Amino acid sequence: MIAVVQRVNEASVEVSEVGVVGRINRGLCVLACIVEGDENRDLDWVASKIARMRIFSNDAGRFDLSIREVEGEVLVISQFTLAGNCRKGNRPSFTSAAAPQDAAPMLEQFVEKLQTFHGLTVQTGRFGASMKVRLENDGPVTVLLDSSDMGLHSH
Is the peptide bond prior to 140 cis by the omega test (within 30 degrees of 0)? Predict the structure, then answer.
């Protein structure tokens, strides 16, 4: 699983002909991609990182607080293009993205983990829809999470 996590002052997602389907105030905007081969442990790892990542500033201005500690919200938006690969040619290949029939229920499970297991308030976009995302970055602070990094140690 790949997730781009952005610290935001506010964010919203709109679906054409439907309107705004998700909106948050201070918190995290998460662009999420389920990739081929992802399992429950990938979802657990990314959800845990998002819930525990200390990327909000304390009173001294240091990154020391998690989304839970600042009582922030999360906006999760499915984005299969995060699996894009441009190694050959200039047109991205998305073959490593999970098939929609596999990715949709896994993304729902991911959101449920954030809500139920980690106690976060979560809004979402619409899986497979063309969406307009509006956000105000805070910092900016952006972190890339990739569950293929599980268990790796820095040297």
Answer: yes
81 catalytic, yes or no? yes
pLDDT of residue 55: 98
Give the model's pLDDT for residue 150: 86
Annotation says 79 is catalytic? yes
pTM above 0.85, yes or no: yes
Q: Interhelix angle for 100-112 vs 40-52, to 10°?
A: 40
Q: Could you confirm whether domain 2-147 is CATH 3.30.1330.10?
A: no
Q: Is 63 a catalytic residue?
A: no
Residues of the chain with pLDDT under 50: 153-155
The residue annotated as part of the active site, out of 56, 80, 110, 124, is 80
